[in-house]
Amino acid sequence: MRFTVALALLIAAACSGGNSPTQSGGSPPVLATLGLSAPGNTLAIGGTMQLSASPRDQDGSPFQTVVTWTSGSLFVATITSGGLVHGVAEGQAHMYARGGSLTDSTLITVVTGAYPSSAPVYMLPSAYSPVQTDIALGGTVQFVFPSLGHNVFFNATPAGAPADIPGQVSNQTVSRTFNTKGTFAYNCTIHPGMTGTVVVH
Ligand SMILES: [Cu+2]
User: How many whole angstroms from 82 Cα to the centroid of ligand 1?
Assistant: First the structure.
């Protein structure tokens, strides 16, 4: 605050004295850019990312000013007074840096950090639900067979799918573990067009 007042007086004095400051020489430094930078634009839930600012004057020289940080959506991500962003929930949020009369921002996307290690697949009369299941490497899928019988046959390619669940299976849950990364399609031989995929990440 004192600095700002002093600067204003300096400018006033320079102007009233009739000696207009020139660009080349004695013009006092003023804040021109905040120089916000981020190491990336996506962040996992629970993850952190350090933002930084390097304020500069009209000549590109470092300019000392206080930078404050705020989040445009605290539901998605919070930010500390030091610019450390914390991912809270899936979504997008602008992070704002303010210094002097300037504002700069960067858009952060918060994503789910990890795929589940376990997921169920239910069976409607002639469809798997969900059609696509995403799991982590080494994860297990529980195939939940209802009273109407179904089966699960994995495609021959790619290699690495677990064993098929043959026959006409009903009223039980059968688990399969996926130890190879990839997209594994499967189908029910009883109901043409009943297909699903497991994507192992
Ligand atoms: Cu079926």
Answer: 56
